[in-house]
Amino acid sequence: MNNASKTVIVTGGSRGLGLGIVQMLLAEGYRVATCSRSKTPELAHVSSQFPADQLFWMSCEGGKENLERDFFDACIAWSGSRPLYGLINNMGIAGEGVLATFPNVDSAKILDVNLLSAIRFSRMSLQVLLRQNKGGRMLNISSIVGIRGYAGLAAYSASKAGLDGLTRALAREVGRRKITVNSIAPGYFESALSSSLGAAQKHQIINRTPLGRLAQVADIVPAVRFLLTPEAGFITGQTIVIDGGITC
Fold it and tell me: What's the CATH number where 131 sits?
């Protein structure tokens, strides 16, 4: 099966890492379905370069189960006779503050968008992949924050640690059906999360990173590309850390 016959769903593909993943998939010839709350100018520019049968976008607010289902159903309808090949759970939000004063409603929102939404998309995707019985790929975009924990990011850390746990459990559940499930855990890179850091905080992180810089989207996307390939068919249940060595 060549890439042109493979459909990959990417949640949260309008900016940053999500957009970088969408661009890579399109360049590799995959058919891509993605969602975000709104269509950014960057995604609109990418959309203008590809035909409608290769890139599908629909507005979807993460954490709203009915909207997630509407988007997923639209993806499957758009894909038509071409099978679903993969799901990349990239949708996520951040929130910073010590837990003692961090509002419960904000913690609940982070967990719903970052973790529960991924569980729901994984469930819907697995129902299709198992019915197709042709194998497939599932990737969760996690974070080193879920591995190490950072002060002021308790809810975010919990949501990303939950993604890694989901990865390991699903890998065991569906491995015999030739579906691999992995996580990618980036370190700090230019994103909504790192944009809240002050210059001194960024400098401290860079100083603690053996490779001496923050990550770029281009550092992370190749790992996504590889894990979708047949060559990665014996890798499952793993969390691949891409952080310049800060957690070593």
Answer: 3.40.50.720
